[in-house]
Amino acid sequence: METVLSGIRSTGNLHLGNYFGAVRNFIKMQDENNCYFFIADYHSLTTHPTPDNLKNSSKQILIEYLAAGLDPEKSTLYIQSDVPEVLELYLFLNMNAYLGELERCNSFKDKVRQQPNNVNAGLLTYPTLMAADILIHRADKVPVGKDQEQHLEMTRTFANRFNNLYKVNYFKEPEAYNFGENLVKIPGLDGSLKMGKSEGNALYLMDPPEVIRKKVMRAKTDQGPTEENQTKSQEIENLFTIMRHVSTPETCEYFNDAYNHCQIRYGDMKKQLAEDIIRCCEPIRERILDLSQQEKYLEEVMDAGAAKARANARKTLREVREIIGFSNKRF
Ligand code: TYM
């Protein structure tokens, strides 16, 4: 049985990118694997150093995980900060992570542009903390969106470096994974390549139908095709990409044909797209509202998940300490 692990930062509600890039894969994988899914609250401090309400943000992600279909009977669900062992592994990995490779990481470069007044060491070492999350459970597969591919590559580098340095074959090489397909990147409705919390262009699972309709109807489009089979502009390509995730193949083909024959009416396409997004989100939204009332159940899920994740993390850490030379005996 393989070990699967993934996480989501606790900086806002889940959006369609998180869902199609990551969560939907978790759900498909939980029946046949040993699964760990966590809420990355330490990571959220790299961008939100003084969060308004750290605990509530984590609780909200837990509710949305459960509402989307994660089953605590099958998977271990936990909050990153409930397993502080990860920080000791993070420290060990940082000792062999080099400034140059950390500075070259795309997510670091993006954040330097987005928050030039807060280029903190946590941002620089974000990939080593992520590697620690993965390696502490010695995961084989990590279901994530396309934007996390480089972080997985770095995790493999850190794992191999550890093995070579200490002449062991301890850590496995984890791979970024999307259930039987290429990694996914859900674009924004504003013509940008990525839907994201910090990009301000997201459709949330929590959005009520009228909000989804409004956001989709406002999506950027162009003047429309003037020649048959014309190459699509980025904003139109984005609408089609989202449609491929939420609509039937027949619907996608219908609008694609209409586009290719210069007969498309973007208003009609958006209306259909909005309804298909609503159909996908509405059951999840209903369960979110229901689960929000179940405090005691949520606490139980978190306590059980923390205990299981922590026991496994302790075991890895004990072995890592031994390998490095910090044995349990004093001398
Ligand atoms: P975060 O919170 O930014 O994103 C969570 C997951 O959602 C995916 N995702 C997308 N996928 C497709 N299209 C999009 N537009 C889109 N936006 C987000 C991300 O790829 C991710 O899978 N670093 C991680 C959190 C993390 C983690 C880990 C993940 C911390 N430690 C260990 C896996 C393993 C992140 O940025 O999450």
* Percent of residues in helices: 40-55%
Q: Flag low-confidence runs.
A: none
The SSE string, one letter per element, is: EHEHHEHHHHHEHEHHHHH
Report the mean per-residue pLDDT as an integer.
96
- What spatial form do the alpha-carbon principal axes imply? globular
Ligand list: tryptophanyl-5'AMP
| Secondary structure tally: strands | 5
Helix count, per DSSP? 14
* Strand content bin: 5-15%
Q: Tell me about the largest β-sheet.
A: 3 strands, parallel
**Biggest sheet strand line-up:** 1-2-3
- The value of Rg in angstroms is 21 Å
Distance from N terminus to C terminus (CA atoms, Å) equals: 38 Å
Structural class: mainly alpha
Structure keywords:
5 strands, binds tryptophanyl-5'AMP, mainly alpha, two-stranded parallel ribbon, three-stranded parallel β-sheet, about 325 residues, globular
Question: Can you walk through the features of this model?
Answer:
The chain has 331 residues and is mostly helical. The chain has 14 helices and 5 strands. The protein has helices at 16-29, 41-44, 54-68, 85-94, 99-103, 106-114, 121-124, 126-136, 149-165, 209-217, 234-246, 249-260, 266-291, 295-324, and strands at 3-9, 34-40, 75-79, 141-143, 175-177. The strands form 2 sheets. It has a 3-stranded parallel beta sheet. A two-stranded parallel ribbon has the order 4-5. Strand 4, helix 9 (149-165) and strand 5 (175-177) form a beta-alpha-beta unit. The longest helix is centred in the last third of the chain and has 30 residues, at 295-324. It is globular, with a radius of gyration of 21 Å. The model has no long low-confidence stretch (mean pLDDT 96). The chain binds tryptophanyl-5'AMP (TYM). Tryptophanyl-5'AMP (TYM) is lined by residues 5-9, 17-18, 21-22, 40, 43, 130, 133-134, 142, 144-145, 147-148, 184-186, 194-196. The site of tryptophanyl-5'AMP has 25 residues, from strand 1, helix 1 and helix 8.
